[in-house]
Structure prediction request, 218 residues.
Amino acid sequence: MTSNTVVYTAIFGDYDTPYSPLYTSSTPHFCVTEDRSTATNEYMALIMPVQSTPRLSSRYYKINSNLVFPGTEFTVWHGGNVQLTQPPEVLIDFLGDADIAVLRHSQRRCIYDEADVCIQWGKGDPSTIRKQMDRYRSLGYPRNNGLHMAFLIIRRNCDNITTLNRAWWNEVSKGSVRDQLSFDYVCWELGIEVKDIPGDIYSGKFYKRHAIHKGEGK
Prediction:
Protein backbone atom coordinates (compact mmCIF):
# COMPACT_ATOMS: atom_id res chain seq x y z
CA MET A 1 0.00 0.00 0.00
CA THR A 2 1.70 3.19 -1.20
CA SER A 3 -1.01 5.80 -0.79
CA ASN A 4 -0.12 8.72 1.50
CA THR A 5 -3.42 8.41 3.43
CA VAL A 6 -5.99 5.65 3.92
CA VAL A 7 -9.42 5.81 5.55
CA TYR A 8 -10.68 2.51 6.92
CA THR A 9 -13.07 0.73 9.18
CA ALA A 10 -13.19 -2.91 10.29
CA ILE A 11 -16.45 -4.86 10.20
CA PHE A 12 -16.75 -8.58 10.86
CA GLY A 13 -19.74 -10.85 11.42
CA ASP A 14 -22.37 -8.94 9.39
CA TYR A 15 -22.57 -6.29 12.11
CA ASP A 16 -22.50 -3.14 9.98
CA THR A 17 -21.99 -1.78 6.51
CA PRO A 18 -20.06 1.48 6.22
CA TYR A 19 -22.05 4.69 6.13
CA SER A 20 -21.39 6.77 3.03
CA PRO A 21 -19.12 9.71 3.84
CA LEU A 22 -20.58 13.17 3.36
CA TYR A 23 -17.89 14.23 0.88
CA THR A 24 -16.15 13.03 -2.26
CA SER A 25 -12.46 12.15 -2.13
CA SER A 26 -9.81 10.37 -4.15
CA THR A 27 -8.31 8.97 -0.92
CA PRO A 28 -8.80 5.18 -0.78
CA HIS A 29 -11.44 4.03 1.70
CA PHE A 30 -11.36 0.41 2.87
CA CYS A 31 -13.60 -1.87 4.88
CA VAL A 32 -11.46 -4.56 6.50
CA THR A 33 -13.69 -7.62 6.59
CA GLU A 34 -14.03 -11.35 5.97
CA ASP A 35 -17.08 -10.83 3.75
CA ARG A 36 -16.73 -9.10 0.39
CA SER A 37 -20.43 -8.21 0.38
CA THR A 38 -19.76 -5.74 3.20
CA ALA A 39 -18.10 -3.43 0.69
CA THR A 40 -19.91 -0.36 -0.67
CA ASN A 41 -19.32 2.05 -3.53
CA GLU A 42 -17.14 4.18 -1.26
CA TYR A 43 -15.48 1.45 0.84
CA MET A 44 -13.53 -1.26 -0.96
CA ALA A 45 -13.43 -4.64 0.79
CA LEU A 46 -10.02 -5.60 2.16
CA ILE A 47 -10.36 -9.29 2.98
CA MET A 48 -8.52 -10.35 6.12
CA PRO A 49 -8.68 -13.52 8.25
CA VAL A 50 -10.89 -13.68 11.33
CA GLN A 51 -8.98 -13.41 14.62
CA SER A 52 -10.80 -15.96 16.84
CA THR A 53 -14.10 -13.98 17.00
CA PRO A 54 -15.69 -11.24 14.84
CA ARG A 55 -15.50 -8.73 17.69
CA LEU A 56 -11.84 -9.41 18.41
CA SER A 57 -11.13 -9.28 14.69
CA SER A 58 -12.49 -5.76 14.38
CA ARG A 59 -10.36 -4.71 17.37
CA TYR A 60 -7.22 -6.34 15.95
CA TYR A 61 -7.40 -4.50 12.63
CA LYS A 62 -8.52 -1.29 14.27
CA ILE A 63 -5.55 -1.23 16.62
CA ASN A 64 -2.84 -2.56 14.29
CA SER A 65 -3.00 0.10 11.61
CA ASN A 66 0.73 -0.22 10.91
CA LEU A 67 0.32 -3.91 10.05
CA VAL A 68 -2.74 -3.44 7.86
CA PHE A 69 -1.32 -0.48 5.90
CA PRO A 70 2.48 -0.62 6.34
CA GLY A 71 3.33 1.69 3.42
CA THR A 72 0.84 4.42 4.29
CA GLU A 73 1.95 7.66 5.95
CA PHE A 74 -1.40 8.41 7.64
CA THR A 75 -4.45 6.35 8.56
CA VAL A 76 -7.90 7.50 9.60
CA TRP A 77 -9.85 4.76 11.37
CA HIS A 78 -13.50 5.02 12.35
CA GLY A 79 -16.10 2.69 13.84
CA GLY A 80 -18.66 0.96 11.68
CA ASN A 81 -21.48 3.20 12.93
CA VAL A 82 -19.53 6.41 12.31
CA GLN A 83 -20.13 8.59 9.26
CA LEU A 84 -17.34 10.98 8.31
CA THR A 85 -18.41 14.50 7.39
CA GLN A 86 -15.04 16.04 6.48
CA PRO A 87 -12.56 14.73 3.87
CA PRO A 88 -9.42 12.95 5.12
CA GLU A 89 -7.08 15.79 4.23
CA VAL A 90 -8.94 17.98 6.74
CA LEU A 91 -8.45 15.34 9.46
CA ILE A 92 -4.76 14.96 8.63
CA ASP A 93 -4.32 18.73 8.79
CA PHE A 94 -5.92 18.63 12.25
CA LEU A 95 -3.31 16.06 13.38
CA GLY A 96 -0.57 18.65 12.80
CA ASP A 97 2.74 17.57 14.34
CA ALA A 98 1.14 14.98 16.62
CA ASP A 99 1.43 11.25 15.95
CA ILE A 100 -2.11 10.40 17.06
CA ALA A 101 -5.42 12.16 17.63
CA VAL A 102 -8.41 10.55 19.34
CA LEU A 103 -11.76 11.80 20.66
CA ARG A 104 -11.74 12.86 24.29
CA HIS A 105 -14.62 11.18 26.16
CA SER A 106 -17.44 13.66 26.61
CA GLN A 107 -18.94 12.14 29.78
CA ARG A 108 -16.11 10.63 31.84
CA ARG A 109 -12.41 11.31 32.40
CA CYS A 110 -11.20 8.17 34.17
CA ILE A 111 -10.70 4.58 32.99
CA TYR A 112 -11.64 3.30 36.45
CA ASP A 113 -15.03 5.02 36.21
CA GLU A 114 -15.41 3.70 32.67
CA ALA A 115 -14.66 0.19 33.94
CA ASP A 116 -17.44 0.52 36.52
CA VAL A 117 -19.88 1.59 33.80
CA CYS A 118 -18.84 -1.30 31.54
CA ILE A 119 -19.51 -3.75 34.37
CA GLN A 120 -22.82 -2.10 35.26
CA TRP A 121 -24.03 -2.20 31.64
CA GLY A 122 -22.80 -5.75 30.99
CA LYS A 123 -20.17 -4.64 28.48
CA GLY A 124 -17.43 -7.15 29.12
CA ASP A 125 -16.58 -9.84 31.63
CA PRO A 126 -16.63 -8.27 35.14
CA SER A 127 -13.82 -10.47 36.48
CA THR A 128 -11.54 -9.68 33.55
CA ILE A 129 -12.22 -5.94 33.84
CA ARG A 130 -11.63 -5.86 37.60
CA LYS A 131 -8.35 -7.78 37.32
CA GLN A 132 -7.18 -5.41 34.58
CA MET A 133 -8.00 -2.31 36.62
CA ASP A 134 -6.35 -3.83 39.72
CA ARG A 135 -3.19 -4.38 37.68
CA TYR A 136 -3.19 -0.78 36.46
CA ARG A 137 -3.61 0.48 40.04
CA SER A 138 -0.70 -1.69 41.18
CA LEU A 139 1.45 -0.15 38.44
CA GLY A 140 0.62 3.37 39.63
CA TYR A 141 -1.80 4.49 36.96
CA PRO A 142 -3.63 7.49 38.49
CA ARG A 143 -7.33 8.20 38.66
CA ASN A 144 -8.83 10.94 36.46
CA ASN A 145 -5.93 10.82 34.03
CA GLY A 146 -8.18 11.23 31.01
CA LEU A 147 -10.39 8.98 28.91
CA HIS A 148 -10.72 8.73 25.16
CA MET A 149 -13.48 7.38 22.92
CA ALA A 150 -11.63 5.36 20.31
CA PHE A 151 -14.24 5.36 17.55
CA LEU A 152 -12.25 7.90 15.52
CA ILE A 153 -8.45 7.69 15.37
CA ILE A 154 -6.05 9.69 13.20
CA ARG A 155 -2.52 8.21 13.16
CA ARG A 156 0.86 8.87 11.64
CA ASN A 157 2.56 5.62 10.63
CA CYS A 158 5.77 6.01 12.63
CA ASP A 159 7.83 4.16 15.24
CA ASN A 160 5.87 5.71 18.14
CA ILE A 161 2.59 4.45 16.71
CA THR A 162 3.99 1.00 15.95
CA THR A 163 5.05 0.72 19.60
CA LEU A 164 1.70 2.08 20.81
CA ASN A 165 -0.33 -0.26 18.60
CA ARG A 166 1.67 -3.30 19.72
CA ALA A 167 1.29 -2.46 23.41
CA TRP A 168 -2.40 -1.61 23.05
CA TRP A 169 -3.17 -4.87 21.27
CA ASN A 170 -1.26 -6.78 23.95
CA GLU A 171 -3.54 -5.26 26.60
CA VAL A 172 -6.72 -6.03 24.65
CA SER A 173 -5.68 -9.58 23.77
CA LYS A 174 -4.97 -10.50 27.39
CA GLY A 175 -7.61 -8.30 29.04
CA SER A 176 -10.94 -6.71 28.19
CA VAL A 177 -12.04 -6.32 24.58
CA ARG A 178 -13.31 -2.87 25.63
CA ASP A 179 -10.24 -1.15 24.20
CA GLN A 180 -10.98 2.27 25.73
CA LEU A 181 -10.09 0.72 29.10
CA SER A 182 -6.47 0.18 28.04
CA PHE A 183 -5.76 2.99 25.55
CA ASP A 184 -5.00 5.77 28.02
CA TYR A 185 -3.04 3.43 30.27
CA VAL A 186 -0.80 2.41 27.36
CA CYS A 187 -0.24 6.04 26.31
CA TRP A 188 0.68 6.89 29.91
CA GLU A 189 3.04 3.93 30.18
CA LEU A 190 4.81 4.85 26.91
CA GLY A 191 4.75 8.61 27.46
CA ILE A 192 2.85 9.24 24.22
CA GLU A 193 0.81 12.42 24.01
CA VAL A 194 -2.61 12.27 22.40
CA LYS A 195 -4.17 15.19 20.57
CA ASP A 196 -7.86 15.50 21.45
CA ILE A 197 -10.40 15.52 18.61
CA PRO A 198 -13.35 17.81 19.47
CA GLY A 199 -16.80 16.29 19.71
CA ASP A 200 -19.15 14.23 21.83
CA ILE A 201 -20.60 10.73 21.73
CA TYR A 202 -22.83 11.41 18.71
CA SER A 203 -21.33 14.19 16.64
CA GLY A 204 -18.40 16.51 16.18
CA LYS A 205 -16.58 18.63 13.65
CA PHE A 206 -15.52 15.63 11.59
CA TYR A 207 -18.20 12.98 12.10
CA LYS A 208 -21.70 11.82 12.94
CA ARG A 209 -22.13 8.70 15.05
CA HIS A 210 -25.26 6.66 14.58
CA ALA A 211 -26.57 5.32 17.88
CA ILE A 212 -27.52 1.87 16.58
CA HIS A 213 -25.28 -0.48 14.64
CA LYS A 214 -26.91 -1.76 11.47
CA GLY A 215 -26.57 -5.35 12.64
CA GLU A 216 -28.21 -4.84 16.04
CA GLY A 217 -31.48 -6.67 16.38
CA LYS A 218 -30.68 -9.21 13.65
In short: The longest helix spans residues 159-174. The chain is about 35% helix and 20% strand.
